[in-house]
Fold:
Amino acid sequence: MNWQGVFPALTTKFTADDELDLAAFTANLDAQLDAGVDGIILGGSLGEASTLSNEEKDTLVKTTVEYVAGRVPVVLNIAEGATREAVRIAESATQLGVSGLMLLPPMRYNADKREVFTYFKAIATATDLPIMLYNNPIDYKIEVTLDLFEDLVDLPTIQAVKESTRDVSNVTRLRNRFGDRIKILCGVDTLAMEELVMGADGWVAGLVCAFPRETVAIYRLVKAGRYDEARAIYRWFLPLLELDIHPKLVQYIKLAETAAGIGTEHVRAPRLPLIGAERDRVLDIINSGLANRPALPQLEGTLEAA
Structure:
């Protein structure tokens, strides 16, 4: 597993009748693969995983693994309240054909350090799949601290972190303490270029769902040291990236996907589609971005391999 590059946290597409829309899902997946993303993440909060049945999750995973056909790794997110259910999913993930796991701390319970360590260890020792921990104390109230990482680095399946503390300096803290032992992927769209410049290995992205080529371009340009070109795209992108740090990020990003021609607005209750002034405001941001979409530089040669 190569924890580097752009990993879209894909949205789940629904029909107007609240069924999985696999045709719309694979159309968006095509756009991601065509843009050159480096992996796919399923079952995150952006994917409305908490509203999906186990059967629906399995269908999405099997569909994605079959469709991707080994071109990029497919990563399954685990966000559970019970350790035994998280272990069950980890144990069954290999049979589903995924390449790795993204793992949140225990859900709906503010576990202490000993409990979080025991939870992570139970899952990490139940599978041979590589694991990326999701460190998002802002939204999920549990921080994977440096000391906790220190206790976890002896577990070989724990290999990476989705860094979402909102503290750019944490990239440097992780590097200073663990070197390259823990791969670092930025998990906050509005901090992505900053963290990549400071040495993050990748970007778990949200607005990539609507703007895959621009996201991949920023990543590859930064890694090639072409900072001025990356910065110009990033400045254009920022008003759109800010849609990722709102409680309604699912509705906002699905609206952006729809406007970009690679998605639908359908969400699953309790989420509801945007209406009225809120929808108009968000659509103005999206349409302004589309109207001023920058020409992308050539991504060939050494940049293609970055």
About this structure: The chain has one domain: 5-291.
